[in-house]
What does this fold into?
Amino acid sequence: MKNKHTISRRNFLVKSIAALSVIYVVPDIFSNASAVTKPPNIEVSSKTRWGMSIDVDKCVDGCTSCIDACADENGLYGFDRPETDSQWIRKLTLKDIKTEKITVLPMLCQHCENPPCCDVCPTGASFRRVDGIVMVNQHTCIGCRYCMLACPFKARSFVHENLTEQLTNSPRGKGCVESCNFCVNKIDNGSDSTACEEACMKEGHNAISFGDLNDPKSRVSIAISKKPNRRLRADLKLKQTVTYSGF
It folds into this structure.
């Protein structure tokens, strides 16, 4: 007959090894953001290059449909503090000092091919996927905000407040930097459109066109072929995949 103490000790060792195995696996899961967000049977590929074209001639002054849709999709509720509330997309009003022409355009992360935010990030939390989407891994972001200083488009926000409500498709966290990610959760689950594009279409403005830049039949490729597009601050040679037309 086996000693009860021997059996208890063996059970203790089995449970301890199982617990250690869990501890070992979890960090490996969270070290790869794309592994968490995309279905396991679909790999992110460089064959796809996501991009966006924005026609400022069609962007209506006073319309906030793209901003509202972004907030709803990503749970960007505010605290009535415009100075610190997160904004992944905002509307800018530009005035040509020579012609006095007023231009209204949506500003978001430009998803650069040469992103300065990634260059300055000390932990690698800011990264660019092979399909062109620039993202932030919140598990490795230390909140230093170097990326915010490096971005010439002021497209990133810092979460200052405690967040009590979370969307499972768009986890956020206090002390982290965040920005537009082209609605990556939708994209990784088979969609080819962003919340802002869908909202703009619903309003009938059709100012935003999104899609695969490598596909000549995509909405973004067709929009670019119909009207000359330009990159903001092209002199910086960042090769943004968000381009504008109409000005």
Observations:
- Confidence is low (pLDDT under 50) at residues 12-38.
- Residues 4-30 form the longest helix (27 residues).
